[in-house]
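hey can u run this one w/ inosinic acid bound, need the structure tokens asap thx
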Amino acid sequence: MSIFQHPATPDIITLRERQFRLFLTPAQINEAILRLGREISDAYEEPPVLVVVLNGAFIFAADLVRTLHFPVQLHFTQLSSYHDEMTSSGTIRQTLPLSQTRLQGRHVLVVEDIVDSGLTLDWLHEHLKTAHRARSIRTACLLFKPTHFKGLFAPDFIGFEVPPRFVVGYGMDYANEGRELPGVYALAE
Ligand code: IMP
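ok here u go:
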């Protein structure tokens, strides 16, 4: 979906002395996002409000909104659970709140980069239900790692189901590096 020409996508990259291998090309990602755009547009009679989870979902959201067939209202929140760069601490902190937004009675579509354990999504679901009184909550994610999923709410719109490997690129980071990569890279085994 991107309007930019991507630079060459190398097969292997190194971040902080760790090697990552190309896992999803920009073309594969574009194709999945076009499909998601159609699925999401068909699923709603009344346009949902999008709640984008920063930082990881910023590129996914930017591409996804340009495929939707309805007028888009966007809000951003930032949640953090990763404390040692590759594994989740299990404790969610909301570092950018949604306090100024009116989500009451609205359909909400959460936009996430990855759903892994599902704990982040459970927290946000509860928050959108109780603090914001959203009418309905669904989730679109680029990647879903079902192996470790133990959440109450599985994502509704999924770009790719992937194995439980650590990934970077297309908005996702390793210790705040690698977000700008146009493809998704998986930690080399
Ligand atoms: P969960 O709460 O375990 O579902 O984790 C969700 C969040 O963890 C995502 O929004 C990402 O920010 C982060 N995350 C999970 N897996 C990865 C990964 O492989 N690479 C980068 N971030 C990840």
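Strands lie at 12-15, 18-24, 49-54, 73-82, 88-96, 107-115, 136-144, 157-161, 167-168, 184-187. anyway lmk if its weird
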